[in-house]
Amino acid sequence: MSERAVALCYGTRPQIIKASRIRRALEGLAPVLAIDTGQHYDYELNELLYRQLEVADPDLCLEVGSGSHAEQTAAILARAAAIFEERRPRAVVVIGDTNSTLGAALAAAKLRIPVVHVEAGLRAADGGMAEEINRRAVDAVAALLCTPSALATARLQRERPDAVIVETGDVARDVLMRHAGSLPDVRGLLPAGGRYAFATLHRAELTDAPGLLARALEALAALPLPVVLALHPRTRAALAAHRLTLPAGPTFSAIPAVGYLESLALAAGAQAVITDSGGLQREAYWLGTPCITLRTETEWSETVAAGANRLVPPDAPERLGMALSAALAAPRGWGRDAYGDGSAAGRIAAAVAELAGTSVTVGT
Ligand code: UD1
Fold first, then answer.
1. Can you tell me the distance from the alpha carbon of 263 to that of 186, in angstroms, rounded to the nearest whole number?
2. pTM for the complete prediction?
3. Which residues in the chain show pLDDT less than 70?
4. Could you tell me which residues come within 8 angstroms of residue 359 by beta carbon, excluding any fewer than 6 positions away?
5. Which residues contact 152 (CB under 8 A, 6 or more apart)?
6. Residue at 215 is within a domain
7. What pLDDT is attached to residue 358?
8. Which of 145, 151, 204, 263 has a 20 to 30 Å separation from 132 between CA atoms?
9. What is the reported pLDDT for 359?
10. Do 57 and 35 share a domain, yes or no?
11. Which atom from ligand 1 is nearest to the alpha carbon of 260?
12. Number of independent structural domains in the chain
């Protein structure tokens, strides 16, 4: 086995969660150079995750912090390129569609280091959305595309017939399956009576539009079911910047962002999940909790097709009530296998092994 490492780059909450399993699987194959870009740097979002998911500290932290999309992407690109030039990893693994994903992928591709894209082949109709630009660009330069679903695979077979495409399933399911049996007691976070909707809102479409954010919060507070909103630091900062206050109602409570395990426990025990998060849409689907997504579209369309997820446009939050009634009345017996079987990390590592020309047996 060569001493050259496989680099694994991550930098946001959902990426740290997924990297927890990918890193372990890759370590069975080659030395791993773990690089945290520092795109999310809140304690709530990072340190707690490292501890809860027993993720070893990264080998390097790029400490890019916040900034415009251009500043963040440029800083990650430049700092990652300097590291790749010096260390010459045999492959660079990136996850999802954040600025960290794009910066690291471009740095590697320009140095002719093979890029492995995990969560490849997802698409939204809104081609101008930051994440959509990132994911299309990374799918265009990657040598190995690891897809979460059959739909994503079929799409890439049309778009990138020259690339290696492997349908691995979604690593988020691996992480969930590993931890679902030992979730913490979250009763202290819940309203009396124990019936509630678990809500999270953090996407730029809402946090950059104070009017929409205020209406969404009011609509949550007006629902007939108590709502527990876990406040992402970005949402908290948007409230402060726009001088918005949280609704004061007997059925609405806001709590700081919670750890991954608490988030799963809250989603599992809820009557419904209301969110704009990609991760929570799938977690609700796997946990059997109906989901309402406050977006006009979702990259995880299989959850909608299965009857597990309903879309409510962010500019019509008054429709949340109707969507909630429909979600609560509908059967919950949907199939849960649209995104693999929970062994994605091992499949990704096996595909990386093949790409990097080693026949080492990989375990998860
Ligand atoms: C984000 C990107 C998405 C990309 C993905 C990369 C944004 C807006 N979206 O996904 O486009 O595909 O990264 O992998 O950046 N959770 C907590 N504590 C809480 C609330 C949620 O730990 O208080 C957990 C959830 O259980 C879930 C994860 O965080 O596991 C979801 O992370 P989130 O920050 O919502 O990002 P995504 O929208 O999933």
1. 9
2. 0.95
3. 1-2, 43-45, 358-364
4. 353
5. 120, 121, 122, 167
6. yes
7. 56
8. 263
9. 45
10. yes
11. 22
12. 2
- What contacts 24+ positions apart, CB below 8 Å, involve 323-330? 323/292, 324/197, 324/223, 324/224, 324/225, 324/272, 324/274, 324/292, 327/272, 327/290, 327/291, 327/292, 328/225, 328/271, 328/272, 328/290, 330/290
Residue 204 lies in domain: 180-329
Q: Of all atoms in ligand 1, which is nearest to the CA of residue 172?
A: 30
In tens, the pLDDT along 134-181 reads: 999 999 999 999 999 999 999 999 999 999 999 999 999 999 999 999
pLDDT of residue 43: 64
Candidates 40, 179, 202, 232; catalytic one: 202
CB of residue 283 inside a 6 A radius of ligand 1: yes
Helix (H) or strand (E) holding 91: strand 91-95
In this structure, the answer to whether residues 209 and 151 fall within a common structural domain is no
Cβ partners under 8 Å of residue 322, min gap 6: none
**Cα 344 off chain centre by:** 15
**Closest of 172, 226, 236 to residue 202, by C-alpha:** 236
pLDDT at 49: 87
Q: What's the CA-to-centroid distance between 281 and ligand 1, angstroms?
A: 10
- Where residue 116 sits, what CATH number does that domain have? 3.40.50.2000
Q: Return the best residue to mutate from 45, 280, 298 for the ligand 1 pocket (most ligand atoms within 8 A of CB).
A: 280
Q: What is the pLDDT of residue 44?
A: 64
